[in-house]
Amino acid sequence: QVHLVESGGGLVQPGGSLKLSCAASKNIFSNSFVGWFRQAPGKQRESVAQITRDGIITYTDSVKGRFTISTDNAKNTVYLQMNSLRPEDTAVYYCHAQTLVPLVENYWGQGIQVTVSS
Fold first, then answer.
1. Which H or E run contains 18?
2. CB 4 within 8 A of CB 24
3. What phi, psi does 117 have (nearest 5°)?
4. What is the pLDDT of residues 67-88, one digit of tens each?
């Protein structure tokens, strides 16, 4: 079993910044697709940022230029730097990893609240 533990969420004013962290209990990110999803109340879960094991990064259009995903494989950790936050960014954010070897498996963090409000 692999556990993903998120941290760094909370309440921030519009225009502020937060940095989310997701630590894995095992070294899996080097052979995984890794990313962040979010879900607002009553809304569908959406992909925010993804990174392949080759380092190819994609973002949803609404966060381009504001969010940055990165990984530190030595620390088994993935980050999401969130700048210029807007009220529409308010959601529960989930860390996700899909392993590629030795087999394909999906892992999810428990979710962490991000609230952007004045």
1. strand 18-24
2. yes
3. -160, 145
4. 999 999 889 999 999 999 999 9
